[in-house]
Design goal:
about 130 residues; 4-stranded parallel β-sheet; two-stranded parallel sheet; Transcription Regulator spoIIAA; alpha/beta; 4 helices
Length: about 130
């Protein structure tokens, strides 16, 4: 899900954005990409909505990505140390093209794993044991 065109994210529109996204958010959605390249104003209410999206997606094993944050947004994220919480993506060009490329790349990796009947590269096939365990 791509959310774009956000000029301001503040107390005036944060609740409306949350309601709009929650209305269309289905169980199939695992990634929310928020394009913040045009955002010129962000306040604590706006940050709160982004954090709420993050918390909701984390409970669903999903992720929120912040795409091309404007300098003002980047500064707010760094001052609040939220840049450590979110995946921040900086890319050139059209965000829709970037999203499609990411989806295709993921589909290709998933197909290869399925064809080879391999386990996910990050999953352990055997339970891990603690170092020095007896």
């Amino acid at each position: 899900m791509l959310i774009d065109g956000i000029r301001e994210l503040n107390q005036c529109n944060a609740l409306a954005l949350r309601e709009r996204v929650n209305a269309v958010l289905t169980d199939a959605v695992k990634i929310i990409v928020i394009d913040l390249s045009q955002t010129v104003h962000l306040d604590s209410q706006g940050l709160g909505v982004i954090i709420a999206f993050h918390n909701r997606m984390r409970r669903r094993n999903g992720v929120v990505r912040l795409l091309n944050p404007s300098p003002i947004v980047q500064q707010a994220l760094e001052l609040t140390r939220l840049h450590r919480l979110f995946e921040i993506v900086k890319c050139e060009g059209n965000p829709d093209v970037w999203m499609e490329q990411r989806i295709q790349k993921f589909a290709t990796i998933t197909d290869r794993l399925s064809e080879n009947h391999e386990t996910h590269p990050l999953k352990l096939s055997e339970p891990a044991t603690a170092v020095g365990a007896r």
